[in-house]
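Changelog note: in this version the structure field was regenerated for every chain. One regenerated record is shown below for reference.
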Amino acid sequence: MGKGAGKGEGAPQDMTKEVLISGELYDVSNFNHPGGSVIKFLTDGGDATEAFFEFHGRSKKAQLVLKGLKSRTAPAAVMKERGYNGKEALTRDYAKLRKELEDEGFFEPNLLHVVYRVVEVVAMHVLGAYLFMAPGASMAQQAAGLLVLGLVSGRCGWLMHEGGHYSLTGKIAADRCLQIIIYGVGCGMSGAWWRNQHNKHHATPQKLKHDVDLDTLPLVAFNEKIAQKARHPLLKAWLRNQALLFTPVSCLLVALGWQYFLHPRHIVRTKRVPTEGLALAVRHVLFFGGLCAGMTWGQAAGTFLLYNAVASAYIFSQFAMSHTHLPVSEADAYLHWVEYAALHTTNIKSGWFKSVDWFMSYLNFQIEHHLFPGMPQFRHPQVSPRVKALFAKHGLPYDERSYFPCLRDTWMNLHEVGKSVDKKSSKSE
């Protein structure tokens, strides 16, 4: 689908790659997408209308590029083949809701909220460093300082996430700059790498061979079909115990792999050393030259691993609660943008005094975030009732759970998937 070769009425008789947007097929065969290979997941089927406008709503350049591409009106057979037929009402109602929310200002950033978020992470870093470095600090005080620093590193992950979606200031250049600083200094990672990978997840969440968040071996498997790829006895043994190993061991290993291999490699390959590379250098100077001044290298390395274990366990475990315990879609299944959010995303209730909203920086409203990734996240609780109404009208589930039951579901899924390695072995034998 979308690859031509005579597929569908009126399809060109070649290997043309086309993406469907607003009833038009745009030729992207020779188009080098700045965001990486995410576009290939939208040329092999389905309708990319919502994905294009949600990812590029604030980019005038993207709108101009789209207009400059060769296009043709999609024949009825192609629309049917791409799963559009029967979903016209859902498309119409979603577009109507989005327009209403846009007109009411829900997509407008709030600069005071941005200032609050930035001041919060700076203040937490200062507090953590003071507790850890204060003259005569006890071990308990130093442990508290390291805990605060680990938590704020995780909170930098939440904050840079919003910068990567351009929903902090609403200005692409400013949000990218904030993401580079916050993610680089606060987490030791690359914003450009994150954007490249994360948009693939948003385009087709929980879809096999599409969602990069499912490509998690060898450290963890969230779905039986992923676990079945394990062959080596040591890998199988690891997966059997993955529920116990996930935090902090697997999370820490993922963080280290990102920080010292995948992200630096991407920075070098994409020639971002003067920007993102500099942010990583500042992070290491502050941590090892400041926080760990006077320590031996062994003590400094141990301190860093403890800090990193807290940060990675916090951020990765909370993200896992939003999707990983849910079913997956097959690689050849083409869901509507709204269906992806309804079937493959979980919301977590705000809890007492909105504590979960703070702890997860409003990304506990993952359904709303996946429907409207460019909306400032603090507005999600306000639009939630209207999203529920849309889902109810179209018979779609609105998966909303309390925090601790969802945490249990996430870990039970890790346990059950881990056991599936043995089931597969017994069948093959």
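Spot check on this record: Confidence is low (pLDDT under 50) at residues 1-13, 424-429. The longest strand covers residues 18-21.
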